[in-house]
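Entry 14. Ran structure prediction on the chain below.
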Amino acid sequence: MPGVLDAVRRAWEGQPELSLPTLFGILANRGVGWGASDDDLLRVLATVERTHPGTLPLSGSRVTARYLLLTQGPEHRVMVDPWRVVVRRPGVSAQPGVWDYATIRPAFVGSPLVVTSAEGIDHRLGVLSRISLLDAAPHSAVADLSGVRRRDLGDAVYLVALDDGSTVVLSHGFDRFTAGRRSLEQESLAWDTLTSCRPGQPLVVGPAGGGRPREYAQVREILLLEDEPLAD
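Output, structure tokens:
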């Protein structure tokens, strides 16, 4: 009994905004019902905890997987993987911040998220409200998005860095940011298809409703920022 209760506590710590009946509903949707054994319950609880851990797993003050971290006060959406940190502000039209990091301080849901850059600067990114595992064994970058259609993108969000210094945030929207001397220019496009999107090739986008494809500079790198949390 103590082991089961401790497993429930750990799974709940990762999603404290859920009521206990809601957590039980999640378990029921995963097959844990009246006839389930304690082993079945522990297995599903371990999966829930792995998907949304209460404490950010670190090894040597760095992560070994890819996570999406949500914070409040101020609100950020932070992608962190073994290579970099990408920081975005929801509802704010701004170019994402992308930087190498040295360490992440121990963090759990309800604690401050502090990431130290490779230059030794501490970035205080708010209070951690949720941790979502995106990929347990990630690659550094995405190899190719050519042929992807907007309707098939799901919940994924990508960052596409171009050789001319501009950055594209690609989701169900298309937002291209170009830093000028005194201002940040933003271009938004309703898109349908990525005709070409791979490193070393121009970014070519088919607009929604048809029409002439839009061609941009060569792609330098493609990064995954968000997706459905990894469940199994």
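The longest strand covers residues 122-135. Will compare against last week's run tomorrow.
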